[in-house]
Task: inverse folding
């Protein structure tokens, strides 16, 4: 058999050349870019785009608008502002800030202006910011009444729609009147289900279903849903864009008005709740709702400027499933406290403090808040004689926040250390708005503004929790894809 | 009716009584006197001799007389030699002679006759009608009667007094067993039917045809009186037409024309007997039919001639029988009205004694012509039978099932089909829904794409999904559109929801079996031995790039799988000088289609063809055909390639989105990606077979050497392409920002093909390779074992990717509104923390397969509107883009959902498939408004009415009514107006230059509104389609068999 010499040589040559090519390619990693494909846009990264629109809802005149219940004349002051540009991650552009009360509108177009409007009708108030005045938008409403039947100072933030809100306030028996106002910040009608919990559990099995028109509001009397309940807590679930609920509590003890206040929804159920800015001069009442299906064991701790405040009495309570319970902390000296609530199951909590003056008095509900994560702010009511004090409370470890107080066109920013386990009070004399941003990663700082009108036994009190604001859009600069 | 009994075979003719007519043989020599003597001798040999001879000749009479005298010998018969006019035809000469001698005194005594013997003078020269037994036997040159011809003719004539003309049977002079002609058969429309076909064996099959319409003049026995009465032949009708006309007129006057099959004439083909061999003869026959028809039938027959002529010629043209087609078309010349009127004038005054309907039995049925055309088509289309050696080895006469079951090619395809089914087990049976809606997964993006949408995506200036843009439709779109149209037209099959998707799905499902079939058939160029071809076909279908292409839905590679083998076979055949022009055209067409899907491979094929053109003598023509065909057909794309050369490396499904550069070692094992162990084994097997094949060639000039070089070139090209980056992956893909590369598997296919070709060469027994026979047998077994191993490994390993039936993410309402007159779009938003992306999905589907990154500038232009919608609850964008539904991928930032919940006019509906949906309802306060933002709307100050949009990108043709001046607002980008023409009552209107969206003024009233997206390259596209048709025509293996077969090919 003749050996196929040519074939063998051919195989060897091709194999050698092929191996050489592979080796050459393996050792030479130079790429050939011949395309014209677009590079990835820089602005596709999320979080770098300032929001260009923001809308908040305020309850409007809370003491009016319930059929069968006498309307009480009141004038609600609504104020809205945005933080200084220095607090924003990017320089904002031009924009406008608008407060709409019915057909009336108040508009500002400069950053250092505070928009304000007055409302006295049973209509929701909407606050909207667009363009450069949308990032960080904050607003609140306040009112003062000093009549024969109602006396009190109320201040509540305006907010975005919530689809699940827990409001703990009101009750106490005869003379208390709780008005639940559901404001719709959106352009579409929203359906809501309102249920009331009491000390004996869920009081309204099927709840009360209500429909709230676009940019409108609906007011309910909690007393009508849960007559005689002394420690009510209201649960609102809403569809769509949600609602901004507030609960206004007025207390008339016989012929003596004992105060009035409006509170917003507290933090979502959690095993640990923090309530900053609790005003107390004597007793402090902590109300806890256990929305779960099992019994909760709740303990409370009151924190003051010096740390934990010794509690006289039982600071631990058992709370049945779906029920509310109260822990009364007596004997507190006049001051601003924070309350920490710890439970073995998620609970909702709020605290009420105040003072009595003879036949009259004043109280203020303080809801639990979430730790500040980002920029939180509050616009202070502009009333003569009204003073504000920023109350901050940290967690188990020291923290630092960047505090900015805006007074007209000027703003002052400083870093404020928050000691572990103690409250910090910062006077806000003359301030138009206050903005707090944590400098730590963990959102352990909670803050509220204690508002005081007058002095001594006749003073009126209110608590205005700082609201988280939205600066950047989760959208980023959207990119069209296929 | 037989009045006279047949005479006995050898009975002599007797002259007694009127039963024995006087027969004058009229001899018509035309080309000298050579044949004249032979003809006279044939007459002398007749059992019944003619009674007189007349020679009509233009040559020297003295020589004619001498020749005749010599031929007559001792036969004493009156002979007259008459000089005919120079150039006069036989019929004209007979006519002239007859007019001079209308009665038996025809044999002249005048000066032209030389030494006539036995001349018989006419005693009653003017009593023509009374002399009915005076017959003329017309004998032109080229025909010679057999001995009993005249007797048979006369006997036939005698049998019926109505018989006026008797024709003989013409057989071929050299082969008397074959027929040349008998009667002249025509349809009622004058189409001549060749019956018998000249050369047909004479088996007596036509002997029963007695009565006919006409007979050829040659050898015909005609009553002199009849010929005089009919005034001879129509001179203008020519030979065939004249004969037909004469017979037809004889029939009309009540005289029969019959054929005497026993009267045999030995005739030279194409000489004595006039057949329908030329267009003029066929036209003459048509004219006769028109002339002889009643006046009221003439328009109908003319119309029929026109229609049937055109259709027949088209059908014949279609099967590349151009000559036959031209012959059919040339018949239309018979419709010349002047000629018809002339013919009618010349033959006026004929006494019609028979009604036309009584002649119907004499015509050939029209169905015979349809059958003839069908036969022509069949002959042109059905390929010649393959040589016996290439057929299945099944025993002759085996059943079809047995033959199929033992055919290696069929077995190879069936094996690969089975392996495909097993390998696709992870896809589930739900994948079959892809035959209705298309597939998704890998490079397949899914979507609803019908033929019309795909076509418009190619031709329209403004096309593409979403808001569209300046079109850049790839050349694969018209091919997909054509196939989709075919699917839509299939009878008894429900029209798929996405016919384009169905086409792609079918291709994915059967790509590997079809690839095996393609490779098996194409491998004939290497060897005709079937089993090695089957083994190599299986290896080709199971090669790692092939399997990966199916698993990842890479359409371009799938088409390459099917077309690369025939293209390579075409190149090989051209190189080996074995290709025919048809073959080269077919390979060129395949290259063009390949170029539409995988331009890089087509470019390589064209380069090789040009190389052959340059260096290979004897193959240059076919090489040029192969090279030029794709260049011409893809000229539009080539222009784009010049502008953007990177397109050469792209194609539908031919990009790797974000994968790192391939490992060279893996590439050497033919792995397009991180293949499985099975894929590695199959790749290594193919490489090993290729190397083994290289070993087997004899000498350096063996084809293995060239293929070895080609292998190296292919490997070098693949390694180079593996380093190429075409940019970065755009947003919307998980690999956004990563390099965009050509899919390397495509470039491994040629390497695989060359390796397998080398391996197959090693198994060729036809002397192309060396090696002892013992080893040769072993090599075939190795190939078979490798094929079995490859198919087994592929089946067991399964497809590495997962495909699924596409499911429209939109709710049924949105799908309906998108496809309906509102032509709305759906906005899909994804905000997953890594970025926010959005996608507009309307009736304009995507390209089914991921190609190059789409130009989304138009869609990107509404980004601010999307932001306003999502961040500011500003729904302006829904009207701008005709969005009726917004989908938000979950999980999404709660604020986004809340914002959409709170946006005026948005209403959340049930979500599905990981999406939350908000339906758009117009929030304006207009008195009238459509139920969703439509693509086209007619706005006045107080109303907004939807206008029906029928086509892609707002194309429409509809009517609108408005009581006051209105504006037609088109929900397309502003730039769209430059690519569209809007007409109101056929008047082109311009867009309002100040409007943000294309807006057109519409006056009050009812108007027809048409919107047409421009095809600015209309002529390019039309030319491409025309050229494609021409290329297909040239490539179809039809026509004359000799033109499409070549020995050894």
Result:
């Amino acid at each position: 058999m003749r050996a196929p010499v040519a074939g063998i040589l051919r195989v060897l040559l091709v194999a050698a050349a092929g191996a050489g090519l592979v080796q050459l390619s393996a050792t030479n990693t130079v790429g050939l870019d011949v395309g014209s494909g677009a590079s990835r846009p820089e602005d596709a990264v999320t979080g770098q785009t300032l929001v260009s629109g923001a809308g908040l809802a305020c309850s409007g005149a809370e003491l009016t608008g319930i059929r069968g219940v006498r309307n009480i004349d009141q004038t609600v002051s609504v104020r809205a502002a945005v933080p200084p540009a220095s607090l924003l991650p990017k320089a904002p552009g031009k924009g406008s800030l608008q407060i709409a009360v019915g057909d009336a509108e108040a508009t500002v177009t400069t950053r250092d202006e505070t928009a304000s409007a007055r409302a006295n009708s049973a209509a929701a108030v909407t606050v909207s910011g667009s363009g450069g005045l949308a990032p960080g938008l904050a607003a609140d409403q306040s009112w003062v009444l000093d009549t024969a039947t109602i006396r009190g100072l109320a201040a509540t933030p305006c907010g975005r729609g919530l689809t699940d809100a827990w409001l703990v306030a009101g009750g106490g028996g005869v003379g208390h009147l709780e008005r639940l106002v559901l404001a719709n910040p959106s352009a579409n009608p929203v359906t809501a289900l309102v249920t009331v919990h009491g000390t004996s559990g869920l009081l309204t099995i099927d709840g009360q279903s209500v429909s709230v028109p676009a940019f409108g509001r609906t007011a309910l009397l909690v007393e009508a849903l849960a007559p005689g309940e002394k420690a009510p807590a209201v649960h609102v679930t809403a569809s769509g864009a949600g609602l901004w609920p507030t609960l206004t509590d007025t207390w008339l003890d016989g012929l003596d008005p004992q105060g009035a206040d409006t509170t917003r929804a507290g933090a979502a159920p959690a095993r640990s709740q923090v309530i900053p800015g609790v005003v107390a001069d004597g007793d402090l009442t902590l109300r806890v709702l256990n929305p779960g299906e099992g019994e909760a064991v709740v303990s409370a701790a009151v924190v003051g400027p010096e740390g934990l405040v010794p509690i006289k009495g039982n600071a631990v309570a058992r709370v049945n499933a779906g029920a509310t319970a109260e822990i009364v902390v007596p004997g507190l000296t006049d001051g601003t406290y924070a309350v920490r609530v710890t439970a073995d199951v998620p609970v909702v909590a709020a605290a009420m403090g105040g003072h009595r003056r003879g036949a009259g008095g004043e109280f203020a509900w303080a809801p639990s808040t979430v730790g500040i994560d980002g920029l939180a702010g509050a616009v202070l009511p502009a009333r003569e004689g009204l003073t504000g004090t920023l109350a901050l409370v940290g967690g188990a470890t020291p923290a630092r926040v960047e505090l900015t107080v805006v007074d007209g066109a000027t703003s002052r920013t400083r870093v404020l250390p928050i000691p572990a386990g103690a409250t910090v009070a910062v006077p806000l004399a003359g301030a138009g708005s206050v903005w707090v941003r944590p400098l730590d990663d963990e959102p352990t700082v909670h803050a509220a503004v204690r508002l005081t009108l007058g002095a001594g036994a006749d003073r009126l009190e209110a608590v205005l929790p700082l609201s988280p604001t939205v600066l950047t859009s989760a959208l980023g600069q959207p990119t069209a894809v296929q | 009716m037989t009045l006279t009994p047949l005479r006995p075979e050898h009975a002599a003719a007797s002259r007694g009584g009127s039963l024995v007519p006087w027969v004058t043989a009229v001899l018509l020599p035309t080309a000298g006197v050579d044949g004249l003597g032979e003809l006279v001798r044939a007459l002398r040999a007749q059992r019944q001799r003619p009674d007189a001879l007349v020679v009509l000749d233009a040559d020297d009479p003295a020589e004619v007389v001498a020749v005749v005298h010599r031929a007559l010998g001792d036969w004493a018969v009156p002979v007259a030699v008459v000089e005919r006019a120079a150039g006069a035809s036989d019929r004209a000469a007979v006519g002239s002679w007859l007019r001079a001698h209308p009665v038996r005194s025809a044999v002249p005594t005048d000066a032209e006759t030389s030494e006539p013997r036995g001349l018989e003078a006419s005693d009653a020269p003017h009593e023509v009608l009374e002399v009915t037994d005076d017959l003329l036997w017309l004998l032109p040159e080229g025909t010679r009667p057999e001995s009993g011809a005249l007797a048979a003719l006369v006997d036939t004539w005698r049998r019926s007094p109505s018989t006026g003309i008797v024709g003989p049977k013409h057989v071929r002079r050299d082969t008397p067993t074959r027929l040349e002609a008998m009667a002249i058969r025509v349809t009622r429309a004058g189409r001549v039917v060749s019956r018998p076909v000249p050369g047909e064996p004479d088996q007596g099959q036509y002997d029963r045809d007695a009565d006919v319409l006409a007979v050829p003049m040659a050898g015909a026995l005609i009553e002199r009186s009849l010929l005089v009465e009919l005034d001879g032949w129509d001179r203008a009708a020519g030979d065939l037409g004249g004969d037909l006309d004469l017979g037809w007129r004889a029939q009309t006057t009540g005289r029969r024309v019959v054929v005497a099959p026993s009267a045999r004439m030995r005739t030279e083909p194409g000489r004595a007997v006039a057949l329908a061999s030329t267009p003029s003869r066929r036209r003459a026959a048509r004219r006769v039919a028109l002339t002889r028809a009643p006046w009221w039938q003439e328009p109908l027959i003319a119309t029929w001639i026109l229609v049937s002529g055109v259709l027949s010629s088209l059908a014949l043209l279609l099967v590349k029988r151009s000559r036959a087609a031209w012959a059919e078309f040339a018949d239309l010349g018979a419709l010349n009205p002047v000629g018809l009127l002339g013919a009618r004038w010349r033959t006026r005054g004929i006494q019609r004694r028979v009604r036309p309907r009584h002649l119907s039995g004499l015509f050939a049925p029209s169905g015979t012509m349809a059958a003839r055309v069908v036969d022509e088509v069949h002959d042109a289309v059905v390929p010649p039978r393959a040589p016996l050696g290439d057929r299945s080895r099944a025993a002759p006469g085996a059943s079809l099932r047995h033959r199929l079951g033992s055919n290696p090619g069929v077995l190879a395809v069936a094996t690969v089909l089975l392996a495909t089914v097993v390998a696709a087990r992870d896809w589930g049976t739900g994948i079959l829904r892809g035959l209705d809606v298309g597939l998704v997964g890998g490079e397949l993006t899914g979507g609803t794409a019908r033929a019309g949408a795909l076509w418009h995506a190619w031709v329209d200036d403004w096309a593409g999904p979403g808001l569209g843009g300046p079109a850049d439709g790839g050349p694969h779109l018209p091919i997909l559109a054509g196939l989709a149209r075919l699917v839509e037209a299939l009878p008894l099959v429900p029209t798929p929801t996405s016919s384009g998707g169905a086409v792609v799905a079918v291709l994915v499902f059967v790509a590997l079996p079809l690839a095996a079939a393609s490779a098996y058939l194409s491998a004939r160029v290497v060897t005709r031995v079937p089993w090695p071809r089957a083994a190599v076909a299986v290896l080709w279908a199971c090669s790692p790039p092939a399997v990966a292409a199916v698993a990842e839905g890479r359409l371009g590679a799938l088409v390459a799988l099917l077309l690369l083998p025939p293209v390579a076979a075409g190149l090989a055949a051209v190189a080996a000088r074995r290709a025919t022009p048809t073959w080269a055209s077919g390979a060129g067409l395949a290259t063009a289609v390949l170029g539409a899907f995988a331009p890089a491979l087509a470019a390589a094929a064209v380069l090789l063809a040009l190389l052959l053109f340059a260096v290979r003598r004897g193959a240059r023509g076919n090489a040029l055909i192969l090279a030029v065909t794709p260049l011409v057909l893809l000229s539009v794309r080539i222009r784009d390639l010049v502008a953007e050369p990177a397109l050469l490396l792209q194609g539908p499904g031919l990009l790797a989105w974000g994968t790192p550069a391939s490992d060279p070692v893996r590439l050497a094992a033919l792995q397009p990606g991180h293949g499985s162990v099975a894929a590695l084994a199959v790749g290594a097997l193919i490489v090993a077979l290729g190397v083994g094949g290289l070993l087997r060639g004899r000498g350096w000039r063996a084809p293995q050497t060239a293929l070895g070089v080609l292998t190296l070139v292919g490997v070098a090209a693949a390694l180079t392409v593996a380093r190429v980056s075409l940019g970065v992956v755009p947003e919307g893909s998980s690999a956004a920002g990563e390099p965009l590369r050509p899919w390397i598997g495509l470039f491994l296919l040629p390497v695989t093909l060359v390796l397998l070709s080398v391996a197959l060469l090693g198994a060729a027994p036809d002397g192309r390779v060396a090696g002892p026979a013992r080893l040769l047998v072993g090599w075939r077994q190795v190939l078979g074992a490798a094929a079995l191993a490859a198919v087994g490994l592929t089946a067991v390993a399964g497809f590495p990717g997962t495909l699924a039936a596409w499911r429209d993410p939109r709710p049924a309402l949105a799908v309906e509104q998108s496809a309906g007159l509102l032509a709305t779009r759906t906005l899909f938003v994804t905000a997953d923390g890594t970025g926010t992306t959005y996608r507009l999905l309307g009736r304009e589907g995507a390209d089914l397969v991921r190609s190059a990154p789409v130009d989304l500038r138009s869609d990107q232009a509404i980004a601010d509107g999307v932001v306003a919608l999502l961040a500011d609850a500003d729904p302006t964008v829904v009207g701008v883009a005709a969005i009726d539904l917004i989908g938000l991928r979950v999980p999404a930032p709660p604020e986004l959902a809340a914002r959409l919940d709170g946006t005026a006019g948005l209403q959340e509906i049930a979500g599905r498939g990981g999406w939350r949906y908000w339906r758009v309802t117009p929030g304006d306060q207009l008195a009238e408004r459509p139920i969703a933002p439509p693509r086209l709307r007619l706005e006045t100050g107080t109303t907004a009415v939807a206008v029906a949009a029928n086509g892609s990108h707002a194309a429409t043709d509809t009517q609108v009514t408005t009581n006051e001046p209105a504006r037609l607002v088109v929900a397309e980008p502003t730039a769209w107006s430059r690519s569209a023409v809007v007409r109101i009552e056929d008047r082109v209107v311009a867009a309002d230059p100040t409007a943000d969206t294309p807006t057109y003024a519409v006056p009050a009233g009812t108007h027809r509104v048409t919107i047409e997206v421009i095809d600015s390259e209309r002529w390019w596209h039309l030319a491409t389609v025309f050229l494609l048709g021409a290329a297909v025509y040239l490539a179809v293996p039809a026509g004359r068999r000799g033109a499409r077969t070549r020995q050894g090919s």
Q: What stands out?
A: Chain B has 36 helices and 31 strands. Residues 441 and 909 of chain B are 28 Å apart (CA to CA). Chain B touches chain A through 92 residues (CB under 8 Å). The longest helix of chain B spans residues 773-797.
